[in-house]
Hints:
The chain is mostly helical. Helix content is 71%, strand content 0%. The chain has two domains: 44-290, Rhodopsin 7-helix transmembrane proteins (Rhopdopsin 7-helix transmembrane proteins, Up-down Bundle), CATH 1.20.1070.10; 297-322. The chain has helices spanning 44-73, 82-109, 112-145, 147-152, 156-179, 186-213, 224-250, 259-275, 277-287, 297-314, 316-321. Helix 1 (44-73) runs parallel beside helix 9 (277-287) and helix 2 runs antiparallel to helix 9. The chain starts with 43 loop residues before the first helix and ends with a helix.
Amino acid sequence: xxxxxxxxxxxxxxxxxxxxxxxxxxxxxxxxxxxxxxxxxxxxxxxxxxxxxxxxxxxxxxxxxxxxxxxxxxxxxxxxxxxxxxxxxxxxxxxxxxxxxxxxxxxxxxxxxxxxxxxxxxxxxxxxxxxxxxxxxxxxxxxxxxxxxxxxxxxxxxxxxxxxxxxxxxxxxxxxxxxxxxxxxxxxxxxxxxxxxxxxxxxxxxxxxxxxxxxxxxxxxxxxxxxxxxxxxxxxxxxxxxxxxxxxxxxxxxxxxxxxxxxxxxxxxxxxxxxxxxxxxxxxxxxxxxxxxxxxxxxxxxxxxxxxxxxxxxxxxxxxxx
Length: 322
């Protein structure tokens, strides 16, 4: 009987359409569903993934909702990438809301229908994050390196069309993941993550190089708009490397690991870095804002005055000498 080499949590590799705890022989006795199925003695990787998914619930969901609110408030003066950021934040919020259901189903419900919904959410996370980040990278790449072409494709209809295409690919992949049983289906995700990773790295490196060059001879300061774009692209590079490099570095070498090691350690740890992007991406976006959106100007001014008064008390000798 063929072994199921799927990670118990993020089931990208699904050779059969049945849950992990049910064997191919229908007449066999069904065991209670367990998140640690086959990994009872090697559960550290799965616990690591579960811990990061809990962070998505506590931090990621509020951060993504705040990003959506800010994008709606800024709809009169949007950037060209706002539609990609908004849909990505919505998808990450949806993925975070599925984590409590995952815990309940693993330990209480043991429902096949809920398990199918969970597999669909993992498919959404596997695909929407890399593809929408690739769209953002493409948007910045054209804007910096081909400004004339960027002006021609600036109308929102082009980004709406690209968004619809990405959503269709995402839902098709998620539906196939939910059904399961497709031959070599695991290679789809491996190919996708490799292609999007190298595309994003290439785009961002080209953008950073172009922005660095654009200072001009004898100029130490970069144009404010270009400096803002430089910071945005640099943050994208950090996200890409931190969240997508581990699965890119680990998953193509599946054959070099033992089946239990790959299923119980390598896959959960690789997917954990991918899953935590639901928290890191909105936090990076919020960190690039000039001021905290939930604090009024008066509150920020009051805080600055308090900090200034505290510094004056701490260093009176320096103030006198000055």
